[in-house]
Fold this protein.
Amino acid sequence: MNKLFLTLTMMMLPLMIWSCSKEDGPEVPDTPTGGSVTITATPENLSAGHEATTAEITVTSTADWSATGDCDWLGATPIGGVKDQPTKVTVKIAANNGSTSRTGNIIIKSSGKEVRIVVTQTARPTLNASESTVYFGAQASETSVKIEANAAWTATSDATWCVVTPAQGDESTGTLSISAAANDSKATREATVTLKSGDLERSIKVMQFSDEITAPAGYTLVWHDEFDKGPVPSSDWTIENWAPGHVNNELQTYTSKEVDGKRTLEVKDGFLNINCFKANDGKVYSGRMNAKPSTGWLYGYFEARIMLPKGKGTWPAFWMMPSNVDWGKNPWPYCGEIDIMEEVGANPDYVSSSLHTGNYNHTKGTQKTHEMKCAGAEGEFHIYALEWTEDEITTYVDGKVQLKATKASMGADHDSWPFHYAFYPILNLAWGGDWGGYKGVDESALPVTMKVDYVRIFQ
């Protein structure tokens, strides 16, 4: 019995060993592995523009394979295939909205071996100019505009009096020079500078004013400054030198001196620039100046073309105070004040006019005032004017009435209507203060500039 069992066991042993190997041991590969696998993928590289797109590659391998992208903007369909069967794989490339080109890979893997298909994608084209509008005075002038592009660009002008240099640039931040010949005509003229890079196009509007002066009906020009001679304001102007907090709790220092090589008041390219900036000493400097303060003018039409700055904390103004005031006998507000134009950067593009007298002033909340939205007051030129007669005061924004007040409505006594002696114009750019800083100030806005094309007085 034992011999028979042993004999049967010995006869069945090869069958038992074969059966365990087949069911429980490691699977025997039916294809080569590692270095013996051959993967073929064509093409070996792909290039794409910035827009979303697809491309196609053909994959063949001597073993089953998989296909994946190594970044979130690349995908592959199908994600794999079987051995010895050429398969077309669709590569999905997402849009590149960045400003730089990028590179990724489609990775084909098979039995421990891989092949990479390099995918390069260009950046979304960029073409930007630091200015969308450039202004010039009537005389020959030149300015610079910064150009930012990630491809080659060209620049052209549609007017012979407006010249751009260079005519083309490369894929880097560059500088475009725009120059204007003298404008001897009687009107403002306009040109367009066109920038192109690939299919992108940008325009820069170039405005050049004329020094031609047209008097309002019934008036004659008696004084003006076109700011065509510099580099500093003419002797008709008195420049103030005030410490911070001198009035209205304002934060700036008014100075006639250069600070860190910069002027707070400069005449350049046909404009008066009132510059407000933070200096190396940590102080904020700006400019304030008065036209003929010792004499002024009694009644007339007062006009200025002004571009206001942007930034929370700015407080530009074009206004008037009386000449030769005896402050002891006739202090503010009894002396009177005429605010032709004021604006604060915390409330952008809202310009206002006000009158202050003994009976009507902001300390009592009774001042005569009016505010209006002037689109583009910050960054564009607009005309602000005052018509002042013995019995009436009217202010204008681009010819539209802003504030209208009469002696009859306010009262004929001095405390109500002190507008019976000469006043002089004032131009200034304050920083912070009771109104300019009522919402705080943002020093990151500095430096800023208030630009004045002219001041004209008619009687």
